[in-house]
Amino acid sequence: MSRRVLLFGALGAGAVLFAGLLIVPVMFGASRFMFGGGVAGGNCVNVAQAGAQPAAATGARAIPANYLELYKDAGEKFGIPWNVLAGIGKVETNHGTSTLPGVRSGENYAGAGGPMQFLAATWKAFAVDGNKDGRKNRYDPADAIPSAAAYLKHNGAPRRMRTAIFQYNHSWDYVNLVLDWAKRYVGGDFEVVQTNGVECEDNDLPVNASDLVKRIIAFAMAQRGKPYVFGANGPDAWDCSSLIQAAYRTVGLNIPRTTFQQWPFGKKIKKGEEQPGDLVFFDSGPGTSANNPGHVGMVISDGKMIVASCSSCVPAIGVKPYKRSDWVGVTRPLARPDLRKKAGELAAG
């Protein structure tokens, strides 16, 4: 992993909401819209084929047969292009054939071991029992290769493949070398997916939502690509609750500023009955609990929310799943009588 950094390295807030927020930068058409926000030109990345398994070419004949099979099996299971795993295996240990220390036993100078060169701590966190023999052996390619796939997956692959490979070994020279080999194994016509946080698959507005809810969601979605800054109120950066407040305010509806205030504000909704525009709350952050959630996102479809996650998250603001272990509950601000009345007045106007 990162023990080769030296080697490859040598080779190479708070502002007042603008009145302009009341104008939503959205173009409707067959429920598609273009995004502004922090994403230059409103471009999105198609990730539909990010995990596709390309056909092996002549160059793959140089890979030992057992390794080739393991790369393909792990690629299919974890949704990682098998040739990327093969590229890592080639660069790290020449598919386990290297005679250097730490390949078949022991560790190298940086503490890495096995055909995919795992540090002990990383192995402990991400090891997979690939051959189901009850052991996780970093020197066994049947375990090491799927473990590498799991580690890439954890770091954003296949949607952010270059980022994930960089986390495997913190050098862009390393990333390029791995991908050069990955191309050779499939005949050269291969490009990995690297999203900017805006995926084309997430650009559809909910079909059955009202125009008002679509406008609320559209504003929040248009902020993708901008940074998360705790306490920020936009327009250049947001935190989780300020993004939600601004999205509602852009259609003329006022809700509280903080997550702690937003939780008791809306009507509580049973899990499984949430709708687009509802708020989903999480037991995360300091001073929070199941009765006092400290993080919030907005439902855009079944299982998906638009959320400002954290300053180190990738993306910081983006579409993510909300059905997770720290999910506390759901509220519906638009079910409040005062907001329902206001929404009706806005619609009539």
Automatic annotation (TrEMBL):
<dbReference type="InterPro" id="IPR023346">
    <property type="entry name" value="Lysozyme-like_dom_sf"/>
</dbReference>
<dbReference type="GO" id="GO:0006508">
    <property type="term" value="P:proteolysis"/>
</dbReference>
<dbReference type="InterPro" id="IPR038765">
    <property type="entry name" value="Papain-like_cys_pep_sf"/>
</dbReference>
<keyword id="KW-0788">Thiol protease</keyword>
<keyword id="KW-0645">Protease</keyword>
<dbReference type="Pfam" id="PF13406">
    <property type="entry name" value="SLT_2"/>
</dbReference>
<keyword id="KW-0378">Hydrolase</keyword>
<dbReference type="InterPro" id="IPR000064">
    <property type="entry name" value="NLP_P60_dom"/>
</dbReference>
<dbReference type="InterPro" id="IPR031304">
    <property type="entry name" value="SLT_2"/>
</dbReference>
<feature type="domain" description="NlpC/P60">
    <location>
        <begin position="210"/>
        <end position="334"/>
    </location>
</feature>
<dbReference type="GO" id="GO:0008234">
    <property type="term" value="F:cysteine-type peptidase activity"/>
</dbReference>
<dbReference type="Pfam" id="PF00877">
    <property type="entry name" value="NLPC_P60"/>
</dbReference>
<dbReference type="InterPro" id="IPR051202">
    <property type="entry name" value="Peptidase_C40"/>
</dbReference>
<protein>
    <recommendedName>
        <fullName>NlpC/P60 domain-containing protein</fullName>
    </recommendedName>
</protein>
<comment type="similarity">
    <text>Belongs to the peptidase C40 family.</text>
</comment>
